[in-house]
Amino acid sequence: MAFYDLIVVGAGALGTFHAYHAARAGQRVLLLEKDAYPAGATVRNFGQVVPSGLAGRWFDYGRRSLEIYKAIQQETDLTVRANGSVYIASDADELALINELHDRYVSVGYPCELLTKARCLAQYPALQPDYVLGGLYFPDEVSVEPEQMVHRLIDYICQKYKVTYQSGSAVIDCQSNYNGAIVTLAGPRQTNRQRFQADRLLLCSGHEVRLLFPDIFADADLIISKLQMLMTEPMPDVALRGNILTGLTIRRYESFRECPSYAGLTTPDYLAELKQWGIHILFKQATDGSFIIGDSHEYAPATRVEDLGYHTQAHINRLILNEARRIVRFPVEPIRKEWAGFYSQTDKEIFEYDVDEHIRIITGIGGKGMTSGAGYAEASIRQWLGVAV
Question: Where is the FAD dependent oxidoreductase domain positioned along the sequence (predicted)?
Answer without folding.
Answer: 5-378
